[in-house]
Amino acid sequence: MIEITLALGLLAFVVTPMVGLMAIGLTTLRDSMADTTKAGIAKNLMREAELLSWTEVSSRLATAAEESYFTYDGRRQTTLNGGNVPSIYIGETKIESAPPPLGPLTTRVIVEVRHFQDTNNRLQLPGLLTRQGP
């Protein structure tokens, strides 16, 4: 009987830390998946900004950041709570004038992606758009 008690005690001593480590591992996995999704959204928003015509870029210089909404896996939604799957991420694309040394043919683009509830966890991707030709 004492052997069974010792075996159960040893099992509890070994299994308890493993359960704790599993919880930490799953939390890390969830965070890394969210970071990967945010990076993909930011990359797509930057690519969309690069494809804008110079007229569209010029018209958006004086406006506020344009918001886009995305699901947990990075699919675009029309509204924050639109569709069957709720939006989790908000992506903002802001186009502003570049600093003077870069000249009038360059604008600065700032793409920011954040979780709609966790405003402290943001991913920012800065970039420059340069007008080619006259």
Described by the principal axes of the CA atoms, the overall outline is: elongated
* Biggest sheet character: 5 strands, antiparallel
How many separate domains make up the residues? Answer: 1
Helix content: 40-55%
Q: What is the strand content?
A: 25-35%
Q: How would you portray this structure in words?
A:
- The model has no long low-confidence stretch (mean pLDDT about 85).
- The protein is an alpha+beta fold and about 130 residues long.
- The protein has one domain.
- It is elongated, with a radius of gyration of 24 Å.
- It has helices at about 1-50, 55-60; strands at about 65-70, 75, 90-95, 105-115, 120-130.
- A hairpin with an 8-residue loop joins β3 (about 90-95) and β4 (about 105-115).
Q: What is this entry, summarized?
A:
This protein has 134 residues and is of the alpha+beta class. It has helices at residues 2-50, 54-59, and strands spanning 66-70, 76-77, 89-97, 106-115, 122-130. It has a five-stranded antiparallel beta sheet with strand order 2-1-3-4-5, covered by helices on one side.
Can you tag this structure with a few keywords?
elongated; alpha+beta; five-stranded antiparallel sheet; 134 residues
